[in-house]
Task: inverse folding
C-alpha cells in the first residue's frame, strides 16, 4: 500500500503540471543533494605521471570527433596493423600482435621514440599490452592460443583488456560547480596506468556564469592524436567481434514473445493481471508460459445440442470462474487451456449452466486464426435439463482497441 | 559520417507515436546553435549526431492502460485492483477537468512500472529490443552510443542496461568484450524512487538493481555519466539520486531557473541550462572543446536568463517539509497520506 501511495505522489506531480500556481516567496531547498568529498588519489597537475600544461589556444586535435579523427591523414599510420585484422573472427593472439606492431611503429616516430612524454606513453601502452599477453597465457597455452578467438578470450574472467574509451577519471577532488580539475584519460582508471589526454581547469565556480575553464593538455597534439587513434582502432576491433547480430535477433524474439503474451494472448482483466503477476513465473527475457483465468466474464452464445431438429442460439453471460492457459513456443505464439465456466442465459427458462470451456488461440500479430472459447455446459432449465454448447467472445480482447 | 548515436528514453505520459521527441530535439538543436561549429550554420548537429527514439509506452498502452481505462469507464472503477483505488480516489477528489486524463496517461505509467512485475519485465524487453537493433546499427557505422533519459525513463534505462549486461555479456558487458555506452545522461532521475522490488532478471538479485550501488556507473557499463536535477523539481526530492562515485561528471548539474512552475520537471527546462547544454552536447558530438570560445557561454547565459526569469523558489515547500528530517527514509502510511494531501492542496493553491 505504501508503494502505491508513493507512486501516487509522483503521479500527482504530473497532475500538478496542469494547474496554474502563483510564484511563491523564495525559500531554500528542503533537501540538499549529497556531496561527499572524494579522496585524492592523484595530483591532477601531474596526473598519472604526466605533466599538465595550460593552453591559451586550443589545437584542433582536441576538438576532433571520431569522424575527424578517422579521416585525419595520420590515423592510418598509428593503426595500420589493427586495421589489417579481418573484419570478423579475429584471433586473440592476432589482436595482441597487431597492438604490438602498431606500438612498434609508434616508437619509430620522433614524437614518441625521441620525446620523454612520448616514451612515457609508450611505456603505459607497453605495460597494458604485456598485461593482455600475460592474461592470454593463463587461459590458453601455445599452440592452441593462436587459434583462440578474441571473442572467446574476452568472455573469460582471466583475460584482461581494459578501457579503450576516453572517460572522465575518478578520484580527482572536483565536481561540476566547484573549482578544480576535470581530467579526461584513456585506459583503465583503476589500475594506476593512465593516459591522460587533457583536462579542464575550472576556476571561479562559485558563480557559474563567470566561471572559467582553461584547457590543460598532458601531451602534444601529435601524441594525443596517436593515442586517440590507437585506442579507437583497438576499440573497433573489440566491436568487430561483438556478436550483436545474434543478440539483436534474440532480443527481437524476447520482445515478440512478450507482446504475444501480454497484448495478444488470452486477454486479462485487471484483477487477472494482478493475479498472474503474482502467480506466473517470468523474467524480462522469459515471458510467462502459464496464465490463470479468474472470474473472467465474456458474452457468449448457447446452443442446445440435445435437440437435433432446431439450431436456436441463445445469448448468455459466460463467467470462466477459474482456469488455466498454457503458452507454447519461444515466441508464445499459441495458447491452449481450459476453465470451469458458469453460464447465465438471457432467457431465464434455459436456467443456469455449468461445465468446462476450452480456450485456444494464436497470438501472432498477423494471425488469421480466431481465438476460440468452446464449452460444454450442463443446464437445468424450467422445462428440461441437458447439455449445451457454448461459444465465447472475449470482452477483454474487445476492450483493447489494438485488437 | 555520423559517429554518435543518442538513444532518447522518454518519461511518463503518452509517447506511443513516432516523433514524440520533437520538443526535445528542438531544444537540443537550439542549444547546439549557441556553440561552434553549429553556431554559424556551417555544420548541422545532424551531421554529427543521430537521435533515436526508444519507446516503451506502448506496453503500458496496449498491455494495460487502454483496456483498464475502458473497463473502468464501464464499471465505474469497481473492477480495478484494490491497490490502485486509493491513488485514483485522490485524483478523483481534485476538481480539475484535465486531471482524469492525466491520471490515465501519467499516473498509470509509474504505477505499472513500479507495481506490476510483468509490466516492468515487458518494458525492459521492449527497450532492450530497440537498444539491440540500434547498437547493431551503431557498431556497423562505427559509432559511439549515448543515452539521454528523462524521469521514468531513468529508472527504465537503469534496469534495462543491467539486464542486457547480465544476459548478453558478450554484447553489452564491457568486461566481457561488450559495447560500452559512451555516455548516459539522466535528467530528473527517479531511479531510486522507483527502484525494483522484485528482480526482473533471473541472473541478478534484487540488490544488483540499487541505483547507487549498481553497475550503471561511469567506468563500468557506461563510460561517462551526467546527472541533471533541477533544484526545484519535487519529483526528485524523495529518495534523491545522488551517488558518491568519486567521478566528477556524475556529481550533477543543478539548474535553478524556470519560466513556469509547471515546466520545472520538463527536460527542456533543464537542458536549456548553459552548463547542461555544453556538457551534454560536448559528449553527444564528441567535440571536447565545445563551448570553449570566450563569447559562447556568456551568450548562452544571457539567453537562459531571458527565457527563465524565475529562480530559487518553489511552490512545494509545505509538501517538502513533510519529508523532514530525511527524504531517504521509508515514510509511514500516515506521513505519506499527509504528503499526498499537501501536494494536492499546493497544486490547487
Result:
Amino acid at each position: 500500500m505504501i508503494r502505491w501511495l508513493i507512486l501516487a505522489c509522483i503521479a500527482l506531480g504530473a497532475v500538478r503540471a496542469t494547474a496554474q500556481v502563483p510564484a511563491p516567496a523564495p525559500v531554500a531547498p528542503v533537501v540538499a543533494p549529497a556531496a561527499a568529498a572524494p579522496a585524492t588519489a592523484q595530483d591532477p597537475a601531474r596526473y598519472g605521471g604526466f605533466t599538465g600544461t595550460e593552453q591559451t589556444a586550443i589545437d584542433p586535435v582536441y576538438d576532433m570527433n571520431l569522424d575527424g579523427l578517422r579521416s585525419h591523414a595520420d590515423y592510418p599510420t598509428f593503426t595500420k596493423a589493427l586495421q589489417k585484422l579481418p573484419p570478423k573472427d579475429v584471433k586473440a593472439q592476432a589482436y595482441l600482435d597487431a597492438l604490438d606492431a602498431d606500438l612498434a611503429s609508434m616508437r619509430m616516430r620522433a614524437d614518441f621514440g625521441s620525446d620523454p612524454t612520448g616514451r612515457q606513453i609508450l611505456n603505459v601502452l607497453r605495460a597494458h599490452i604485456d598485461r593482455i599477453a600475460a592474461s592470454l597465457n593463463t587461459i590458453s597455452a601455445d599452440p592452441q592460443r593462436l587459434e583462440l578467438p578474441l571473442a572467446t578470450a574476452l568472455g573469460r574472467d582471466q583475460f584482461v583488456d581494459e578501457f579503450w574509451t576516453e572517460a572522465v577519471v575518478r578520484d580527482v577532488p572536483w565536481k561540476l560547480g566547484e573549482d578544480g580539475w576535470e581530467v579526461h584519460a584513456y585506459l583503465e582508471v583503476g589500475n594506476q596506468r593512465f593516459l591522460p589526454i587533457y583536462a579542464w581547469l575550472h576556476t571561479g565556480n562559485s558563480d557559474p556564469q563567470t566561471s572559467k575553464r582553461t584547457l590543460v593538455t598532458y601531451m602534444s597534439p601529435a601524441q594525443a592524436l596517436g593515442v586517440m587513434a590507437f585506442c579507437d582502432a583497438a576499440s573497433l576491433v573489440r566491436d568487430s567481434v561483438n556478436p550483436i547480430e545474434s543478440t539483436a535477433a534474440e532480443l527481437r524474439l524476447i520482445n515478440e514473445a512478450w507482446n504475444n503474451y501480454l497484448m495478444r494472448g488470452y486477454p486479462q482483466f485487471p484483477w487477472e493481471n494482478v493475479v498472474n503477476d503474482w502467480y506466473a513465473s517470468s523474467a524480462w527475457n522469459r515471458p510467462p508460459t502459464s496464465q490463470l483465468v479468474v472470474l473472467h466474464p465474456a458474452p457468449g452464445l448457447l446452443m442446445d445440442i440435445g435437440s437435433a431438429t432446431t439450431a436456436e442460439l441463445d445469448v448468455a453471460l459466460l463467467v470462466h470462474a477459474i482456469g488455466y492457459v498454457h503458452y507454447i513456443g519461444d515466441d508464445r505464439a499459441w495458447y491452449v487451456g481450459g476453465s470451469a465456466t458458469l453460464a447465465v442465459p438471457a432467457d431465464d427458462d434455459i436456467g443456469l449452466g455449468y461445465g468446462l470451456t476450452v480456450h485456444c488461440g494464436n497470438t501472432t500479430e498477423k494471425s488469421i486464426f480466431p481465438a476460440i472459447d468452446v464449452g460444454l455446459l450442463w443446464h437445468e432449465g424450467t422445462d428440461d435439463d441437458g447439455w449445451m454448447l457454448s461459444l465465447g467472445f472475449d470482452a477483454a480482447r474487445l476492450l483493447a482497441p489494438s485488437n | 559520417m555520423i559517429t554518435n548515436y543518442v538513444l532518447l528514453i522518454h518519461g511518463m505520459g503518452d509517447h506511443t507515436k513516432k516523433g514524440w521527441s520533437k520538443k526535445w530535439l528542438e531544444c537540443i538543436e537550439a542549444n547546439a546553435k549557441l556553440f561552434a561549429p553549429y553556431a554559424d550554420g556551417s555544420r548541422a548537429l545532424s551531421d554529427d549526431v543521430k537521435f533515436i527514439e526508444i519507446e516503451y509506452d506502448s506496453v503500458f498502452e496496449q498491455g494495460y492502460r487502454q483496456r483498464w481505462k475502458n473497463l473502468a469507464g464501464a464499471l465505474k472503477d469497481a473492477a480495478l485492483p484494490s491497490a490502485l483505488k486509493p491513488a485514483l480516489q485522490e485524483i478523483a477528489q481534485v476538481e480539475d477537468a484535465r486531471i482524469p486524463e492525466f491520471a490515465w496517461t501519467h499516473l498509470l505509467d509509474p504505477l505499472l512500472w513500479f507495481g506490476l512485475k510483468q509490466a516492468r519485465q515487458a518494458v525492459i524487453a521492449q527497450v532492450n529490443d530497440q537498444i539491440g537493433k540500434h547498437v547493431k546499427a551503431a557498431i556497423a557505422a562505427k559509432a559511439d552510443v549515448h543515452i539521454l533519459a528523462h524521469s521514468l525513463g531513468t529508472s527504465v534505462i537503469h534496469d534495462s542496461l543491467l539486464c542486457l549486461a547480465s544476459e548478453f555479456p558478450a554484447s553489452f558487458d564491457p568486461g566481457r568484450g561488450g559495447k560500452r555506452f559512451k555516455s548516459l545522461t539522466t535528467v530528473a532521475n527517479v531511479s531510486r524512487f522507483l527502484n525494483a522490488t522484485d528482480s526482473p532478471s533471473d541472473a541478478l538479485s534484487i540488490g544488483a538493481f540499487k541505483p547507487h550501488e549498481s553497475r550503471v556507473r561511469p567506468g563500468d557499463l557506461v563510460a561517462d555519466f551526467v546527472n541533471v536535477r533541477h533544484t526545484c523539481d519535487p519529483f526528485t526530492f524523495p529518495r534523491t539520486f545522488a551517488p558518491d562515485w568519486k567521478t566528477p561528471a556524475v556529481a550533477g548539474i543543478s539548474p535553478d531557473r524556470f519560466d513556469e512552475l509547471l515546466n520545472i520537471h520538463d527536460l527542456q527546462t533543464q537542458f536549456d541550462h548553459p552548463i547542461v547544454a555544453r556538457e551534454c552536447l560536448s559528449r553527444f558530438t564528441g567535440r571536447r572543446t565545445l563551448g570553449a570560445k570566450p563569447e559562447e557561454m556568456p551568450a548562452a547565459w544571457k539567453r537562459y536568463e531571458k527565457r527563465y526569469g524565475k529562480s530559487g523558489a518553489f511552490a512545494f515547500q509545505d509538501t517538502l517539509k513533510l519529508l523532514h528530517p530525511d527524504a531517504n527514509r521509508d515514510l509511514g502510511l500516515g506521513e505519506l497520506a499527509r504528503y499526498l494531501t499537501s501536494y494536492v492542496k499546493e497544486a490547487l493553491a
